[in-house]
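Our consortium's second objective concerns turning raw sequence data into structural hypotheses that experimental partners can test. To show how far this objective has progressed, the report includes one record in full. It was chosen at random from the queue rather than selected for favorable results. The single chain below, 116 residues long, was entered without modification.
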Amino acid sequence: MSSAENVRKLFADKATPELIERISHEKETIYRDQISHGKPDPEMFLTTAERLGLDAKRCIVVEDSLSGFRAAERAGMKYIVITTGADAEELKHAGNACAMYEDFTTITVRSLMGFL
């Protein structure tokens, strides 16, 4: 299952009707070929936040790689680590993570809101 499918499942399973309504109207998708620099450069995260009209400090990144942790930190965003499939050595560098979850199934919108 792709990350996008996991996120959709998370919101479908856990979100309030109001949040589902807002997310279903979001049309912004950032593709790799639309940015100049890949992770650990924060460009992808900052561009996404800007296009959605969000303050980077009010965003939470969900990541499983060192380059993603670093990109989130450089963007000034909080991040959550998904440990399934993550490299054990890379997890040692996730000390600034808000939380670590084995997978998406236990993340709730309420827990995400608690990190903001």
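The partners drew two points from this record. Confidence is low (pLDDT under 50) at residues 9-14. The chain is about 45% helix and 10% strand. Both points have been shared with the crystallography group to help prioritize constructs.
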